[in-house]
Amino acid sequence: MAAPGIRPIRLGLIGTGLAVEKLHWPALRGLADRYVVTAFTDPADEQRKRFTGYSGTDPALATADRAALLARDDVDAVLISVPIPSLYEVACDALAAGKDVFCEKPAGVDAQQAAAFLALAAGFPDRTFVVGENYFYRDDLRYARALLDDGAIGRPHLMAWRYAGQSVPRPGGFTSTPWRHRPQYRGGVHLDFGVHHIAQIRLLCGDVARVHGAVQAANSTIDAPSDLTLNLVFTGGAIGNYTASFPEIPIPPEPNDLRLYGTEGVLVLAGSESERRVTRSSADATTHTTVFRGSDNGYRAELVDFADAVQFGVRPVGSVAQSVANAMVVQRALDSAEQAAALALDPVPGAGPVPLWRPRGSAGLFDGLPGQRISSTASFAA
After folding, report:
1. Same domain for 183 and 285?
2. What pTM was computed for the model?
3. What are the Gfo/Idh/MocA-like oxidoreductase N-terminal domain coordinates in residue numbering (predicted)?
4. Digit-coded pLDDT (tens) for 136-146
5. Exposure string for 301-339, b = 16+ CB within 10 A, e = fewer
6. Are strands 35-41 and 77-80 parallel, antiparallel or unpaired?
7. 325: in domain
8. Three-class SS string for 261-322?
9. What average pLDDT score do residues 140-158 get?
10. Domain carrying residue 130
11. How far apart are CA 330 and CA 326, in angstroms?
């Protein structure tokens, strides 16, 4: 909650598409003490009408274009949710207009634009500039990270994660978006969706020092690689493998779980959005499982962090530098695939290890957050 007497942030929405409808608006609706939408714009008249319909926002708050929205004195900050190739240009305009910025990911269509994002952030040090990464704020991932920080599995030495799921255009879903079918950004689905996985890997395993990648194209509905496999060496000394496949044919159910092996135990992250599980196995064959239900996968928490940064000067976890660090793992993986060689990753200025986010003023992980957490203990001993 905001402190008494602190005015809610007057927020302008630039783009009101699927990401706002399915991800951001449900979170904003529950944060009326932190945000009030004072303006919105979208190039599609139908999309503006749809937004006012499901949100109940006054249609009179619609503006003709982003220039008109950015010129308004009653907009303190903007949430930018436009196609990936337009993110940088819109962020530039918003910062130049004196607004604080919460921008959809990723930070850049390629390595060159990622560097431009860093320079843009450095050029406006007095503004809060965040690139959204909800995986940094997910309850199950933060809980798993806290276990690792406490040494629950000893020294992590191996990470293994295979993720596979059919990807074809489906009406009403993110895969239906035309600009995703023929992406004007390097890496396609692996830069759009895959950066979330990289964020999870970095949050749990630390930064990547070296990567060796390979790609395949096995999906005619997208003009980009459908398959990516990476061998990773982490700065902390652990090694790992990450494989992601997005074919167009149906595939059997996949566990899609991440396993992290330590000298004193194993950590397994599994489950779906509706029920995520973190299981820690100890050297005595005891397992401790925590099930997470009813959370929103971090969208509320990342907006809380942004509000705390704007209103109280808190340094946000989801910085531009952290987003660039995620994206650069994908970019160097693609470089590696093209060159058929293992490649080093240079540290991203201002990034470093991902901080563990906690609600402001709290020592706990979940204070004031929605969701249910149920823990149980078992044994897999023979």
Report:
1. yes
2. 0.96
3. 9-122
4. 999 999 999 99
5. bbbbbbbbbbbeebebbbbbbbbbbbbbbbbbbbbbbee
6. unpaired
7. no
8. EECCEEEEEEECCCEEEEEEEECCCEEEEEEEECCCCCHHHHHHHHHHHHHHCCCCCCEHHH
9. 98
10. 9-135+300-318
11. 7
